[in-house]
Amino acid sequence: MVTESQSLNTPHVYIKHLNEHVGSEVTLKGWLYNLRSSGKIAFPQLRDGTGIVQCVVLKNAVPPEMWESLKSIGQESALIVRGTVRADERAPSGYEIDVSHAEILQAVHDYPITPKEHGPEFLLDHRHIWLRSRRQHAILKVRHTVVQAVRNFLDGNDFTLCDSPIFTPAACEGTTTLFEVDYFDDQKAYLTQSGQLYNEATAAAFGKVYCFGPTFRAEKSKTRRHLTEFWMVEPEMAYATLNDVMSLSECMLSYIAERVLEDRAEELKVLERDVTRLKAITPPFPRLHYDDAVKVLHDGHEKGVLDSRFEWGGDFGAPDETYISGQFDKPVMVHHYPAAVKAFYMARDPERNELALGVDVLAPEGYGEVIGGGERATSLEFLQQQIAEHELPEQAFDWYLDLRRYGSVPHAGFGMGIERCTAWMCGIEHVRETIAFPRMMYRLRP
Ligand code: 4AD
Ligand code: MG
User: Which ligand number lies closest to the CA of residue 234?
Assistant: First the structure.
């Protein structure tokens, strides 16, 4: 988009569109990223959110006062420059700007984030400005593409977006991770852990649906994979099974990887991501029965890689997931977990009642579970019994049980955490950098 600059009479151009303006005079509006200068020449690097470009200011080409103020400004000074676009193969962006005029909106001299190493706590305290740095910018652009890919994929496959509420009357994923809030008239409400139960209602109305929004977990967990507020996309399909969920998972993740590789090549370079790992994400993904996953863990124990011998029946810890996924270069789909470690709504294996028709998709490279889902129980009596066994308030689930009274059919779906997926795509250590303002056990600011 080109808009007429108010202050300078040339078109305002975004840095990412400079290729369309070679040889022309343009106005760029942004912030100073870096500045080198000598006696007669200065090289301010300007960033505008769409890119970074090096500008060239010759002392003789601008008024003396402009030269004086320009050569002393610090990082993140607000700056509008006018100049001619020149293609230059040696320039990192491919272009340089020969500046004829500069306007300093605000000179900054004490920007807190400097090129020296800062600790993670300092950077997280300054998250509101840390977002401007090249690496953080690259990560959030990848996140944007992950979200866009998810929406394109589901919209293109006939899923209808039906968002679910944030205030909910009861737990979906276990009562130990609920955030309670005061509601009106002494009622308690809980921040949603998952929109799934509502998805099951909308799936019966629309066939294929998804919800996509923030979800909350009061987990007292400080790992690199946990946030207390994270974004989850949850597709749900009527007349669908565990196998359908596995097929949808592998297609969606492969599509996301393809979009990220194509649309965010520059950002992946900034992040020094090994793209061969992303190129490997193509269907089909290996499918591993829980029983076989346990055998893999026993094998790991015998080889001395895993400290303790895994007991059949338990849920996998992070080291277990890492070991299992380490056996494959693609994500691996572990299915048929023991029902005892899964949520109340899971359908059971008709052949082995102790197993749930659930699946976790474990990403390679130690990223762990990125998708959790499966087939839902269809029987009213079974669910009533499950709700009682899990000590959940039956009254709060009355509407949910109606779905088993009126036209109950096999249905299935999953949830994917956007931050875990983004961390994996970026190849970064911690999910906290994949959301603009992370919420964690010990972080509620900025
Ligand atoms: O496995 P989870 O808990 O599954 C559900 O909530 C289902 N009701 C979803 C469904 O079937 N519709 O969570 C799904 C995904 C995980 O695989 C993970 O990617 C992400 O949500 N996730 C988290 N991400 C960041 N921080 C946390 N604390 C997370 N907890 C889950
Ligand atoms: Mg899970």
Answer: 1
